[in-house]
Amino acid sequence: MQNKGLIKLFAILFGLVSLYQLSFTFLANKVEDDAVIYADSKADENDARQKATFERKFLDSVANKDIIDLGIVQYTYNDVKDKEMNLGLDLKGGINAILQVSVKEVLKSLSNDSKNEAFNKALDAADVRQKNSNLNYLDLFFEEFQKIAGTTKLSDPSIFGTKALSEKISFDEENITVRETLQEEINSSIGTAFEVLRSRIDKFGVTQPNIQRIGNSGRIQIELPGAKDVERVTKLITSKAELQFWEVHTNAEVQNFFFAANAKVAELLKDDSAVKQVKDSIKEDDIDALLGEENDSTQVQKNLFTYLFPNVAQSQQQLSSLVGQARVLDTATVNDLLSNKEVRALLPRELKYVKFLWYYKSSKGNDGSELIGLYAIKSNRNDKPTIEGDVILDARQDFDQLSKPVVSMTMNSSGTKQWAKMTADNVGNFVAVVLDDYVYTAPSVNQAITGGNTQISGGTMTIEEAEDIATVLKAGKLPAAASIIQAEVVGPSLGQESIDASISSFGLAILLVLLWMILYYGKAGLYADVALAVNILFIFGILSSFSAVLTLPGIAGIILTIGMSVDANVIIFERIKEGLFKKKGLKQSVEEGFSVKGALSAIIDANITTLLTGIILYVFGTGPIKGFALTLMIGIATSLFTAVFITRLLIDGAVNKGANLTFNTNFSKGWFQNINVEFLKKRKIAYVISGAIIIGGLISIFTLGLKQGVDFKGGRSYVVRFDQDMNATEVAGSLKDAFGSAPEVKTYGTNNQLKITTAYRIDDEGSEVDENVQNTLFTGLKSYLGDTTYDNFKPGFEKQGAGVMSYMKVSPTIADDIKTSALYAVFGSLLIVFLYILLRFRKIAFSIGAVIAVFHDVLIVLGVFSITYSFMPFDMEIGQSFIAAILTVVGYSLNDTVVIFDRIREFAGIHTKWKYSEVVDKALSSTLGRTINTSLTTLLVMLAIFLFGGDSIKGFMFALIIGVAVGTYSSLFVATPIMYDASKKEEKNKE
After folding, report:
1. Which tens digits make up the pLDDT trace of 826-855?
2. What SS3 class is residue 747?
3. What is the pTM of this model?
4. Distance CA 935, CA 925 (A)
5. Residue 75: beta bridge partners?
6. DSSP secondary-structure letter at 208?
7. pLDDT tens for each residue of 963-981
């Protein structure tokens, strides 16, 4: 092998980089473990909400403290957190939701709630069609409107030809151009909703959030790993944006109050019996002690200005709408102090209704801490703003005459009048634009603005800030709040259990593979084990380097990759053993085993087919499925490198030192040698057996059906844990009265855990509906829950007793889309693999054999699931995870088949005088050792995951186990015989 030195250097450097990247995960986990210890010592034993608060408090306190000092570079906890490997919801707990911005509501709003009959009939028809269509809502509406509108156009004054849209839609404009304008307006509304949601989530305090738009569908996906307060998150992401315009007090107007409040706070903090709650909320000595920091016993008595840095105006030129600043970590403390009754009693009459709001984003202070500005809003007895945001017609980022960024804003007639009065009353003062109680800008008013068109500018305003403000202003005219159409909530307790189960199954799977390789191949197996360990390091290093999200299916993908990665070493070792059997000598046998003419061609072909399956999964999958596909693809690449190069380095080193490598042990010596099975003569028996199994499965599918998961049929699914063993049938009967019909109830894992699935009110929209269904579930289960309160029953936070461990909701509309995408994924992968095999082997018979075998495997797995789902003690739903399993089975079966086909092609080129049937039988016999060895190793790995992995993955792993067993059988008795029969027919057609 050439360039050994370069490969060694690359492997060492890549290994060191992987260890470096993984170190951030270990360090972040250490800090978070300290946070848990601190929270446990401070919070009440059974108060999970309080524990979460103390954990957050601890992590906030160390956020900007250096925890790594390498001399030339230092890393804070926040830095380390940004670089750690991300865990998915199923491992960490949290919330994953897809929100739908209602395009229907956008259209109604743009039409000024038109009463036009054709318009409203088209909307209703589009509603009906959307439930079973993948077209976007605007296309459906447009098609329906064209059917029933007659001569009426969308630009009619009673629809979109309104005064508000006069600059964008002209009277009597053609429908097709109106449609383009409507699409632009819809995209703008969705974009604005996206930015508002992103701003809210950034302030929520969840680390590593993910928010992204899903094309132009009006859907927004949000992932919040680690989020525990489900109720707060739901309110945060579904409430309508509240844009307001307020008058503002200047810093000069409030500074005297701040001085008085500062003295009062110092007085209160001296008195141990006074405002205990305030003192508790700002006490930091215990955290400082835990961090190993010394407290100065002579430290100055704390007061308001310990936390709030007032912006004092000593002259007219220093007047500002910014009244102070505080560290982000201290904002809660400042809020507590300024809202204290004794402190507010100091407010003069003109400040009686003042409310203090923070700026929407922070900035770096001189000491490196995050600072955020404070504003004093002129509120009133009813807390009503001067102007509401619904008067905004349009807003955009623009440039003034000096090419400085500004925001151009247009209001409707009502807003124009209100704005004219507000600006006239505040010439020389300031007004604030506030969204969701955060100040986005508070510019000074130079003159009354009477035309309704306004430019908002600032001396240091950047283009980014101007875009933010324009987005906020447009949020004021958002026609509808986003509604949750798909949601998944995993409690942190269940997440931790998944991690523990994953570690157990991961460790056992690796141990089984390592032992088997040594038992079967001896010292050569030990070298393969070293390469396997390097492979695992590379996989996790890459995941960590690219901040990929590791999910439970992702771990399954890694473990499956480990099982399959052995295949490359097995193929190579079996080829080397063939050379030794033919007395070629060790060095020559090793050389041939690692060559393209030896094992390399089959390895590359097999890996490419599996990689193509992974790509299809990644393109069409969502959430955990993408995680599975990503780890599968990374594992394929690293496995190929370690098997071909790392194993080769180790074996070459041993050969050069004169080691006697036999590639077998006393246990495995003589296995699969001199085998000559006439497989083709048995093909008719195999066809009958396979046909009988498939027909039985199809009969079951058409009579018993398949158990579709929530993500395919829509509905809500809850995993509920109880304090005692439960009877699923009895619980279903108890819930029948609550839901109107009996939900599906099944034991989930242990006997004290149930999975409850219902379609109750699934067609109704709104977060209040979700709350109602959850409350109904609690009421129906109350007799089994003991002392558990509704707050403790709800998902989120650690569970000490009974409660919802995880929750999933999928609306029927998106369920249909998910099912369609899954079908595209399956058939897309089959088409791509068919074309690849055709390109690689240049005979259509090979493609036909491979694809029919894959269909054979898929139908058998489906049949097994149909026959057994009613009595198996674990979940066997057909959903996205099942599709991932099916596609993995496709990849594995093809991997096996391609290796065999590669050997058939090789034998056909060498043994030109043999009958083709003899070529096929000899090729199958020569690869039998590799086929059984690889399948056995893979099955051992998957059995370890199945037996010791989490409950949520058992159905997934069962499908893989069945698929691998059937795939091994089909590559020998279905794919190859069909290829042989197709080849004979092809030859006859040529004659």
Report:
1. 777 777 777 877 777 778 888 888 888 888
2. strand
3. 0.69
4. 16
5. 68
6. S
7. 888 988 888 888 889 988 8
